């Protein structure tokens, strides 16, 4: 059963990232281009996957990705998480995802200040 849940979680993460990063599914074309140009280019794909896995799943976040997250910026981070959380399948738990997102941000800011 654990393997089944793990596979479902990975599929969910891939679909969520697809919705977030593919303009046709997430936002209007001009908004998507603006997000891409200002936000998504600042973070590695691996760290982006890790963020989604933490916020929308139960993964642990590697401290090594905190630099990327903080460099991306709070506005970009919040906007991208909100776009994913606004999907019809996720909207019911949006407040939970936004709290996890804020907790992750706070953790990374604290890590960045000590580094």
Automatic annotation (TrEMBL):
It comes from the Eukaryota. Keywords: Signal. Residues 38-109 form the Prolamin-like domain. Transmembrane segments: none annotated. PROSITE patterns: PROKAR_LIPOPROTEIN (PS51257). Residues 1-24 form the signal peptide. InterPro entries: Prolamin-like. This is Prolamin-like domain-containing protein.
């Amino acid at each position: 059963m654990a393997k089944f849940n793990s596979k479902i979680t990975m599929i969910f993460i891939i679909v969520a990232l697809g919705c977030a990063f593919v303009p046709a599914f997430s936002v209007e074309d001009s908004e998507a281009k603006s997000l891409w140009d200002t936000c998504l280019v600042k973070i590695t794909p691996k760290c982006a996957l890790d963020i989604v896995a933490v916020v929308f799943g139960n993964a642990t976040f590697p401290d090594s990705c905190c630099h990327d997250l903080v460099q991306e910026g709070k506005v970009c981070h919040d906007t991208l998480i909100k776009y994913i959380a606004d999907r019809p399948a996720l909207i019911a738990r949006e407040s939970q995802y936004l709290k996890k997102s804020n907790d992750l941000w706070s953790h990374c800011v604290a890590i960045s200040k000590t580094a």
